[in-house]
Design brief:
Layout lengths: L1 H38 L16 H28 L5 H9 L7 E2 L2 E2 L3 H14 L1 H21 L2 H12 L5 E4 L15 E4 L6 E12 L6 E8 L2 E8 L8 E2 L14 E12 L11 H35 L12 H29 L5 H23 L13 H13 L4 H13 L6
Parallel strand pairs: 3-6, 4-6
Antiparallel strand pairs: 1-2, 4-5, 5-9, 6-7, 8-9
Helix pairs in contact: 2-4, 4-5, 4-7, 5-6, 5-7, 7-8, 7-9, 7-10, 8-9, 9-10, 9-11
The protein binds 3-thiaglutaryl-CoA and flavin-adenine dinucleotide (FAD).
Length: 433
C-alpha cells in the first residue's frame, strides 16, 4: 500500500514533470515563433538588430547626427565636391551640435561613449567621407593630441574653442618622402640658439587635411633624433616661416580641404611641445581613435550606396519591363553588400564597447579599419555597376563615394599596412622591412 502510494506519487510526479517539460517546450516554441514573427519584418537597414545593442542616449545622438547630416550636409555636398570647396562653417555647425571632441569629458566637450562617437561618424560619412575627415582630424587627431599629451594650460587654452569649431586644427605626420613609414621623418626641431625657451621647426608635411585653414597645427618632428609633438599656432608664426598651400585637383575627397605644411624655422615656445610623450607612440595613440572612427564612417558611406542602389534597381526597368531588382545578379550584389555592412557595424560596436572598458589593443582597430575600408570600397564599386551609365553622373552620388572610399582605404595606414600590423601580431614576425 505504502509502495503503491509511492508509485502513484512517482507516476504523478513524472506526469507533472513531463507536462512541465511539454509546456516549457510549447511555450518555448511559441516564444521562438513569436520572435520569428516579429523579426520576419526583416529590415535590410538593420538585419541583425544592431539597434538593440545601443543605449537610449546613443540612439538619440545617432538620430541627431542623422538629422544634421541629411539636412545641413547633404544639400551642399554636390557643389562642394564639384568646386573642391570646404566650408569652414561646417566645423562651427558640428561644434554647435556637440560633435567635436565628443568623447572628451570637460573642456566644453560632450563626453559621450565611444559607440556614440562612432554613430556620429557613420551618419556624417553617409553623406561624404570628406566631411567625416574634417570631423576626425579636428576631434581625434588635433583635440585628441592636445587632450592626451598637452599640459593643463594647453588643454584649457585650446580645447573649448576647438570644441566650438572656432579654432581649426590639423595633424602633420606624413611627409613627401615618408608616408607609411613615418618613423623615418625628416622634419626637425632644434633649440633656438638666440631665444631661450624656444624651438625652431623646419621641414615639410604633405597630404594634411585642413592644413590650409588650420589655426593650430599639431606637428610631429625629431628633436635630437626622437619624435616629439609640437603645437604650432599660425598667428605666432613670423611671415615667411610657415606656408600651407592647398593641394588642388584631387580625384577623391574633394569636399575636404587638403594641403602641405612648409616650415622654415617656425618658432615654438617650449610650453607648446607635448612634455611626456616621445616616439611614434604619440601620433599612433591619436591615430587609434581616428582609425576607429573611419571603421564606422566607411560603413555609413556603404549604407548610402546600398540605399541608392536598391532604389535605383527597383525603379529602373530593363528587358520586358522588369525592374533590375528582379534579376539574381543584382540581388546578389545587394545581399553581399548588406551582409558586410551589417557585420562591419556589429564589429564596430564590439570594439567600441571594449574601448570604453579599456580592453582595447591597437590590432583590434587595425582589423576593423582594414576590413571596413576594404569591404566598403569593393561593394561601393560593385553597386556602382547597377547604375549603368548613370553612375557617371554625380547626381547619383555613387561615383563620389567610390572615389572617397579609395582615400579612406589609403590614409591612416593603407590597408596593406594594417595587414602587416595584423600579420605581425599573428606570427610574431615583423614584415615591414
Ligand atoms: P613600431 O615599432 O610598430 O612602433 C613604434 C612605437 O609606436 C608604438 N605603437 C603604437 N602605440 C599606440 N598605438 C598604436 N597603434 C601603435 N603602433 C605602434 C609602439 O609600441 C612603439 O612604441 P615604443 O615606445 O616601443 O617606441 O613602428 P614602425 O616604425 O615599425 O611602424 C610601422 C607601422 C607600419 C605600424 C606604422 O608606421 C604605421 O602604422 N604606418 C602607417 C602610417 C599612418 O597611419 N599614417 C597616418 C597619417 S595621419 C592621416 O592619415 C590622417 S588622415 C585624416 C583624415 O582626413 O581622416
Ligand atoms: P606610401 O607609403 O608610399 O605607400 C604606397 C603603397 O606602398 C601603399 O599601397 C602601401 O601600402 C605600400 N607599402 C608601403 N610600405 C610597404 C611595405 N613595407 N610592405 C608592403 N607594402 C608597402 N597624413 C597626415 O599626416 N595627416 C593628414 O591629415 C592626412 N590627410 C590625408 C588626406 C588625404 C586626402 C590623403 C590622400 C592622405 C592624407 N594623409 C595624411 C596621408 C596618408 O596618411 C598617407 O597617404 C598614407 O599613410 C600612405 O602614405 P603614402 O601616400 O606616402 O604611401
Amino acid at each position: 500500500m505504502h509502495i503503491n502510494m509511492l508509485r502513484i506519487a512517482i507516476r504523478s510526479h513524472l506526469r507533472l514533470a513531463s507536462n512541465l517539460r511539454q509546456n516549457r517546450h510549447r511555450s518555448g516554441n511559441q516564444l521562438l515563433r513569436g520572435q520569428f514573427r516579429s523579426a520576419s519584418t526583416f529590415d535590410y537597414k538593420d538585419p541583425l538588430l544592431l539597434r538593440n545593442l545601443l543605449e537610449d542616449e546613443e540612439i538619440a545622438i545617432a538620430e541627431t547626427a542623422q538629422e544634421y547630416s541629411s539636412q545641413k550636409l547633404l544639400p551642399r555636398v554636390l557643389a562642394a565636391y564639384r568646386d573642391e570647396d570646404f566650408d569652414k562653417n561646417i566645423l562651427k555647425e558640428m561644434g554647435e551640435a556637440g560633435f567635436l571632441g565628443a568623447t572628451i569629458t570637460g573642456y566644453g566637450c560632450a563626453g559621450v561613449s565611444d559607440v556614440a562617437m562612432g554613430l556620429i561618424t557613420r551618419e556624417v560619412e553617409r553623406v561624404d567621407s570628406g566631411y567625416r575627415s574634417a570631423l576626425s582630424v579636428q576631434s581625434s587627431l588635433s583635440m585628441g593630441a592636445i587632450h592626451d599629451f598637452g599640459t593643463e594650460e594647453l588643454k584649457e587654452q585650446f580645447l573649448p574653442e576647438m570644441a566650438r569649431g572656432a579654432i581649426v586644427g590639423c595633424f602633420g605626420l606624413t611627409e613627401p618622402n615618408h608616408g607609411s613609414d613615418p618613423g623615418s621623418m625628416e622634419t626637425i626641431a632644434r633649440v633656438d640658439p638666440n631665444r631661450e625657451g624656444m624651438y625652431l621647426l623646419s621641414g615639410s608635411k604633405t597630404w594634411i587635411t585642413n592644413s590650409p585653414i588650420a589655426d593650430v597645427l599639431i606637428v610631429w618632428a625629431k628633436l635630437d633624433g626622437k619624435i616629439r609633438g609640437f603645437l604650432v599656432e599660425r598667428s605666432r608664426c613670423p611671415p615667411g616661416t610657415l606656408e600651407t598651400p592647398a593641394i588642388k585637383n584631387k580625384t577623391g575627397l574633394r569636399a575636404s580641404i587638403t594641403g602641405m605644411v612648409h616650415m622654415d624655422n617656425v618658432p615654438v615656445p617650449k610650453e607648446f611641445m607635448f612634455p611626456d610623450v616621445e616616439g611614434l607612440r604619440g601620433p599612433f595613440a591619436c591615430l587609434n581613435n581616428a582609425r576607429y572612427g573611419i571603421a564606422w564612417g566607411t560603413m555609413g558611406a556603404l549604407e548610402d550606396c546600398i540605399e541608392r542602389a536598391r532604389e535605383y534597381a527597383l525603379s529602373r526597368k530593363q528587358f520586358k519591363g522588369n525592374p533590375l531588382a528582379k534579376y539574381q545578379l543584382i540581388q546578389k550584389k545587394l545581399a553581399d553588400a548588406v551582409t558586410d555592412a551589417t557585420f562591419g557595424l556589429l564589429a564596430c560596436v564590439q570594439v567600441g564597447r571594449l574601448k570604453g572598458q579599456g580592453l582595447i589593443v591597437p590590432e583590434m582597430i587595425s582589423m576593423i579599419k582594414r576590413q571596413n575600408c576594404d569591404r566598403s570600397l569593393v561593394h561601393a564599386r560593385c553597386l556602382q555597376e547597377i547604375f549603368g551609365g548613370n553612375a557617371v553622373a554625380d547626381e547619383y552620388h555613387i561615383g563620389r563615394h567610390v572615389a572617397n572610399l579609395f582615400v579612406a582605404q589609403t590614409y591612416e595606414g593603407q590597408s596593406d599596412i594594417h595587414s602587416l600590423i595584423l600579420g605581425r601580431a599573428i606570427t610574431g614576425v615583423q614584415a615591414f622591412c
